[in-house]
Amino acid sequence: MTSWAARALAGAVWLSSALFGVYILVFYAFAVVTGDMARWNEVLPLYEPDEAVANGSMGLHFLGGGSILVLGSVQFVQGLRQGWPGLHRGLGRVYVAACLAAATGGLLFIVAHGTIGGLVMDVGFAGYGLGMLLCAVQTARHAAARRLDAHRAWAVRLYALAIGSWLYRMDYGFWLLLTDGLGHTRDFRGGFDVFMAFWFYLPNLVVAELWLRSTRAASWWADATMALATAFVTLGTYFFLTELWLPAILSVVR
User: Fold this and answer.
1) 3-state DSSP call for residue 130?
2) Which terminus of the chain has fewer Cβ atoms in its 10 Å neighbourhood, N or C?
3) For the chain, what is the radius of gyration of the CA atoms?
4) What's the average model confidence in pLDDT over 198-227?
């Protein structure tokens, strides 16, 4: 994937997901430090004062999830990998540890508390967590054995999953804006909610596999598709940054 459209899309995704990661770290993870745990419930009911295991698990999930969104993109910078291999390996260990933390925290939360969407969301999100655990372990295992091609392939799959939480918010934002919430209910059990319990990560893995197996240069239609996707990501990032992420961050740091 070396065309201008691919590079533009990659840059837009990396920037947007990193900004979302900063938002998660500042708004959610930092709430544990400040003791303002009620902040967790401003978007979804996540904090329960009498559920220490669920709260601790979600805190771990936020800390790991925010970190992987910030660090994941950096690991794919060719100049870092080739020019600073020691730094790449060091950040890679932190990145894999953050992925394990995010996945483990999310799975423990599902077991201890369950998701707002019930069984379907539990199954969908648990599959996401288990997939991230597998990809993180495989990424680290092949790196340690110096099987660099396999390491790179599993790192691509891991990143495809890592941006799932970002895509989940982006997809919901556009869906609510364009359809006024068609198929979405407050308890996340509507038709669109059921669809999204799996859509935010399974297609990512399909795209990752197609990319890993592709040997041909992108055609004009592929470039056009990626250009449209770049516009979609850029527009969504601007909307979320100005309407949600930046105001939320500023409310904490001020």
Assistant:
1) helix
2) C
3) 18
4) 74
Amino acid letter for position 161: L
Residues 6+ apart with CB under 8 A from 75: 81, 88, 91, 92, 95, 155, 159
Q: Compute CA 169 distance to the chain's CA centroid, rounded to the nearest angstrom.
A: 9
State the number of CA atoms in the 13 A half-sphere of 115 facing the CB: 19
HSE-CB for 239 with a 13 A CA cutoff: 14
Q: Which amino acid is at 123?
A: V
Whole-prediction pTM: 0.83
The answer to whether 187 and 143 are in contact (CB under 8 A) is: no
Contact by Cβ (8 Å): 117, 188: yes
Average pLDDT over the chain, rounded to an integer: 85
Q: How confident is the model at residue 154 (pLDDT cuts 50, 70, 90)?
A: very high
Please name the helix (run of DSSP H) or strand (run of DSSP E) that holds residue 150, with its range, or none. helix 148-162
- How far apart CA 138 and CA 41 sit, in angstroms, is 34
**Which sign does the torsion angle of CA 125, 11, 19, 63 carry?**
positive
Query: Helices in 24-118 by DSSP H: which ranges?
Result: 30-34, 52-72, 78-83, 85-112
> Phi/psi of residue 218, each to 5°?
-65, 140
First to last CA, the chain: 42
Summarised one tens digit per residue, pLDDT across range 48-97 is: 788 888 888 988 998 898 888 888 777 777 777 788 888 888 988 999 99
> Which residues does 111 contact at the CB level (< 8 Å), separation at least 6?
none
